[in-house]
Structures are given as structure tokens and as C-alpha cells.
Amino acid sequence: MKIETFFENFELFAEAPGAVARMRELVLELAMRGKLVVSGASSVQVQEFSDAKQSEFTTERNNENEPPYELPRHWEWQSLATVADCRASEKVSSESIKTKSWVLDLEDIDGIKGKIIHFSTFEDRNSLSTKAAFEIGDVLYGKLRPYLNKVVLAPKAGFCTTEIIPLRPTTAVTSEFLRYFLRSKSFLKYAAKKGYGMKMPRLGTKDLESAWIPLPPLAEQNRIVAKVDELMDLCDWLETQQQDRETRFESLSRASLDRFAEAPTPANLNFIFHKSYDVSPAELRKAILTLAVQGKLVAQDLSEETSKELIFRINKTLGESNGKKYDSVSENDAPFEIPDSWSWIRLGSISLKSESGWSPQCLNESREGSNWGVLKVSAVSWGVFKPEENKALPPGFEGRPECEVKAGDFLLSRANTEDLVARSVVVGHSPPQLMLSDKIVRFVFPKEIEKEFINLVNLSSFARIYYARNASGTSSSMKNIGREVMCNLPIPFPPLPEQRRIVARVNQLMAHVDQLESQLSESKSSGKNLLEALVAELAA
């Protein structure tokens, strides 16, 4: 396969993660292996090597390891020191630099595009310390590991920080070819292997000089550089097209969600799921929950018992159990409008009780078999109950049956990260002898409540905003929600039959989203596999 064919079929694997970046990498790798352009050369034309330098560097390097791959017969492996002077730059002090002189640091280099994005004068950057001088045409190489792909040609003379090494090519190699070599995958792997230092790994000058460089004749170097430039421009264009498409798709997806919110009909639902609009599964799940709790997902049935009548029956049950009274939800506390047959009410006003568990000093490992264990907050943080997320009681401790989790329990975490605190689940099945921790709260509801609907409300966007506003704790990695805050959560409350219809509809739609997400994942995986297969075929 030709590289042109590879680019012509870009759409086949465009959805693969990092497709354009992988293509840039492939172009450079093919270029450095002599597979990018057709060559008519029969012998290498390496010029003006110093025998002394050749002996000093290549002998040492050959004793260490062999070149990384085979080259065309008319190419030749050389040590970098034989084709470029890595020590030509003069180290100078700040005092010797004129204030109008040009200075450069790593942040001024675009590693992806291989371009200088900002040039300043020393007058602007007088906080910089020791500097190295460079000349027009020098190859400026960033030697720190996070910036190993930051390689550019100097368009004018100036000064740079010591994190940048100016390389001055000999007549054996062009500056442009050397620049592309320093950005190639094989050299980056070498640089990463040779880097030293813990906090900010870097490549030493001696190791840079000892690196192998594949060297074709000068005429072929020029043809390779021209072809790489052409293909990199094509990569830029493809990247721009991808970004434009993503912007258009984002606008279309928002429009499709808005359309469904205004009229949640089957036709508009199919409009959301249309593959052309690329609505993310996460956005779909969020939109479905929002529509569900606003009363826009299923039709209201005016013949059913109203929510006010349902609340009256619940209050009778709560009165018999001496339930605590909570303030009504005012218009200011209600975050959105609800159907006339619905009511706003506090979570605590429709629950029989709430309780926490027990958190002794447990073992680090999970329990064995059916021994007693204590649930971690991760058991209730991800929308699905995960009983395997537990810690074993230490020897000599007896379990507390009153803290045991049962099927049908409605559980919330009261302590977790900013994103996960107060997440909830309804327990489907729980193995015996698993206990609540004191960081998990269990709410008990009367039979007139559909717990799955309350769970949908608690997981919706407006509930997340409510908890974020009322959470305590200064660190985003650990927030706390008091039980009183949970009990005061405003609940948009429909009639009981409608609660059940909403839950059924949400489950149906979420299954559809799961299927869509699986298809998207398979599509990306297929694109990735195809990309890797094509890359392997080209690089073989």
C-alpha cells in the first residue's frame, strides 16, 4: 500500500483515538526508514566526516548496541555527532546580551506543528538565566522529556535557555532532515531510554551525540523533506476538518436534545440517536434524567390519583411512625416547573427514616466468602450497587445485623469526591452479611413510593447542583453531605403510576444508550485496529 492510499482512506479510521497524531508519527517513521519516496541513488554521498569523530562516537555506540532497523542499501547509519555539532553554541551570561536580542524558551515552541509560536526580546524575558547562542539554520532541540518533540529551525540568530540544545549541521545532512529525524518515533524512544533525572528527565549532550541517525544522500534528503512537508500539511488540513466537524456535530447534538426536550416524541427520540449528530452517551443519559424528573418523558394521565392525594396517604403513614416534619418547597427553592398533577416535596417528608452504618477499623482486603464485611462508598458511587467493594472485619469483631444491607435498600454516600458525593443506588441483590459504613446513609420509604424514581431524581443534574451548593469540606477530593441536607433535597413528585412509567421509560432509553455506546466503542476499536493494521503494512 502507498502512503497516498493510506491518506485517501482516512475516514475509515478517523474515529480511532489520536488518528491524525498517529499519521504524523507514521509519516516520519516511513521517512526515516527510506519508505516515503522512491530513490534512484546507488551509493551514499556522506561528505566531510571527521575520521577522529567517527572513531570516537560510532565505535563507542557500536559497542553498546546495533542500529534499530535495516536501511536501504544506499543509506548509512552514522552517529549524530558526525553530522552535526551539538556543542557549537556558546554559553553566555545575561549581562552580555543586548536587551533587544531575540530569546527563546521551550514554551515558545509548538511541538506538534514544529514551529516557533512566539519570539521575545531579552528585554521582555530578563528573568531568564544562563543562555546559549544559536545561529540561523541551527536545529533547536528541547532536551527535557515532556518536550522531546519540540524541535525547530532557527529563522534568525538569538539566545535560548539551557533546556534547548542548538545543533549545527555539517554538509552531510540538511537542517530540515535533521529536524524531522529528531521528531521521529525511533529517536524519541532512544531519548526516553537515555533520559536521566527524576523530577524533569532530560537527554544529555553526550547521549545525543551518540544517537544513530539514518543518512540518505543529500538529494534524497531534500526529496524526503519535501514529501514530509506535503504530508504534514495534509495532516494539518485533516485535523482542521475534524475540528470543524466536531464543532458542527456539537451544535447539531445540542439542537437535537433541545428538540426532544420540547417535544419528547418517538420521532424526536430517533432524531437524537441519529448517527450523524454524534451526541455523546454521557450527554444522552444526562438529558434523559432531566426530562424524566421534569415530567417531559411520559404523558400525564389525569384519571390517576394526584400527587397531592398520594402525599396525603403518605403523611398518614408517617404520622403513625412519628416522622419528622420538613418545610414545604417554596417557589424560590423549586429549580424548574413541573406538571400540574405533580408536587414539590422534601426527601425527608416522604421517608420513614434514615440511618447510617458502622465503620470499625477494617482490614485492607475484601472479606472472604460470606464473612462479615463493611461496604466502601465506591459500592454506591457508580449508579450500580457493587457489593464486591467492601472491607473485611478484623478478627474478633462481630457483625451488626441492624446495619446489614438488604435487597431494595436506597443508599446514598455522605462522603466522597466532589463529583461522587451523595450518589445513590437502589440495591437489587445483596449477598448476606454486608454492612453499611458510617459514610453510607439508608433511606426507608413507605410502600407508596417508587424508590427507583427517587433514585433518578437524586442522580439528576439539579440534585447534583443542590449537593454541590450544600456540601462541606475545603478539598474537592473529599466533600461531606449531612443527613439533614439530604432530607431537604426538593423532590419533583408525580403520581405513583406515573413514577413507575417514568422508571420503565428511563430503563428502556438507558438500554438504548448502552447499545449506542457499545456501537461507538466498537466503531472506535475497529478504526483503531484498522489504523494499526495499515500502519503495520506500511512499516513492514
Topology:
Elements: H1 3-8, H2 10-13, H3 19-32, H4 51-64, E1 76-79, H5 80-83, E2 84-85, E3 91-92, E4 102-104, E5 109-110, E6 115-116, E7 120-121, E8 131-134, E9 139-142, E10 151-153, E11 158-161, E12 164-169, H6 175-182, H7 185-194, H8 205-210, E13 212-215, H9 218-262, H10 266-272, H11 281-293, H12 307-320, E14 343-346, E15 353-356, E16 373-375, E17 390-392, E18 410-413, E19 415-416, E20 424-426, E21 434-435, E22 440-444, H13 451-459, H14 461-470, E23 479-480, H15 483-487, E24 490-493, H16 496-539
Parallel strand pairs: 4-11, 16-21
Antiparallel strand pairs: 1-13, 2-12, 3-8, 4-7, 5-6, 8-11, 9-10, 9-12, 14-24, 15-22, 16-17, 18-20, 18-22, 19-23
Structural commentary:
By secondary structure, this protein is α+β, with helices and mostly antiparallel strands. Helix content is 39%, strand content 14%. The strands form 8 sheets. It has a 5-stranded mixed beta sheet with strand order 3-8-11-4-7, with no helix packed on it. A 4-stranded antiparallel beta sheet has the order 2-12-9-10. α3 runs antiparallel to α9. It is elongated, with a radius of gyration of 33 Å. About 4% of the residues have low confidence.
Beta-strand portion reads 5-15%
Q: Largest beta sheet: what is the strand line-up?
A: 3-8-11-4-7
**Main β-sheet description:** 5 strands, mixed
Radius of gyration: 33 Å
Helix count, per DSSP? Answer: 16
Low-confidence segments: 42-63
Q: How many strands?
A: 24
- Indicate the mean pLDDT: 82
- Structure classification: alpha+beta
**What share of the residues lie within helices?**
25-40%
Shape: elongated
Distance separating the two termini:
11 Å
